[in-house]
Amino acid sequence: SIDISTLTKQTGYTTLDQGFVNTASTKSEITYIDGDQGILRYRGYSIEDVAKNSTYLETAWLLIYGELPSASELEEFEEKIRRHTLLHEDLKRFFDALPHNAHPMSVLSSAVSALSTYYQDSLDVHDPEQVEISTIRLLAKLPTIAAYAHKKSLGQAFLYPDNSLSFVENFLKMNFGNMAEPYEVNPVLATALERLLILHEDHEQNASTSTVRLVGSTEANLFASVSAGINALYGPLHGGANEAVLTMLEQIKESGEGVEKFVQRVKNKEDGIRLMGFGHRVYKNFDPRARLVKESAHEVLAALGIKDELLDIAMELEAVALADDYFIERKLYPNVDFYTGVIYKAMGFPTRMFTVLFAIGRLPGWIAQWRESNSDPKTKIGRPQQLYIGEPQRDWPTER
Ligand code: ACO
């Protein structure tokens, strides 16, 4: 077999692959995707099986440690996470310094970055015990940070975590409960949220995960690497798409222009608009997660007795696009984010929280990928080449 790295060195070839369309940055045992057939597997298990049978934390264990946990391993893991859900009281005050209308993704990445200042032992990325405790702290504290970001935007008091509840139930309570009255978790919402989080847990070398691995390759600690991943997720072409989908659906509703006209404007590339929630770098047939999310959207809205015009617009958009040559030729299908926003809205989350929910979902994948990279002795600092196309050497002008 040919060792490409040696070949590149010997011949001096550099491959230009903008957007890394063909270049693998790593080997990985975590997630398998076949984009043509719409297959996604976590550690060999199909996403359909995982979504129907597992929980967020059990799936996190699977991704991070490679196997399904035994009942006692899972119990111990959940207990450890429950013990770390609180934020340091000083970190709580950190939120006071940020404007109330800050985007919660900015709040999230800043607060996660700040975790390194409280847990300075985490800087030793070669100490397995530190990696382990940083893993638990991140999984436990990210939902608390996210709920605080939400409460701050509403001007409401923060609620301490309630460790008598499950991971997802506690998260719902911290977001929607208040100090004045008891909070009752709606099981339909808890089940739907659990499923959505599972569907987002890992997706191999997407932009945010590649960012986490790249930053981690410099031996930056887990908090710093995940904070960078959150910022990569923020963009509307990645995690920010779920927010952008809802904004788009609302604009279509308010403008009254109708779906057909809007799709025509997308096809004309008017102002560079895209059909948000459509298309994927890897899936060129269908996104298996999108099917499961669509199922949940109908279940949640039916169970809550909500009739949402935005869901009708989304379904009409999907039908029109799937029958249109522009989308067929370019292999553009609904992705996981097309229907997630409709569900989050029905749950009561403001649009700006949608990408934060994606970040909580993706966290176990980021951790698993960072740990895989960190424990591989062959990992090198990520340092892409470039092709310089600027001016050749120039003499400094004598007169200016
Ligand atoms: N709407 C309209 N046209 C599109 C769309 C879209 N959503 N996506 C791609 N196209 C078109 C492009 O204009 C291009 O057309 P052209 O050949 O006439 O120039 C062609 O399809 C190929 O597009 P690329 O941008 O080269 O595809 P790429 O694989 O780089 O992009 C991406 C993938 C970023 C997801 C893109 O499809 C997109 O912008 N989608 C909308 C945003 C979105 O939903 N992102 C979420 C992704 S999933 C996730 O992060 C969980």
TrEMBL record:
Catalysed transformations (reactions): oxaloacetate + acetyl-CoA + H2O = citrate + CoA + H(+)
Pathway assignment: Carbohydrate metabolism; tricarboxylic acid cycle; isocitrate from oxaloacetate: step 1/2
PROSITE patterns: CITRATE_SYNTHASE (PS00480)
Pfam families from the UniProt entry: Citrate_synt (PF00285)
Signal peptide boundaries: none
SUPFAM superfamilies tied to this protein: Citrate synthase
Homology family: Belongs to the citrate synthase family.
Listed name of the protein: Citrate synthase
Organism: Homoserinimonas hongtaonis
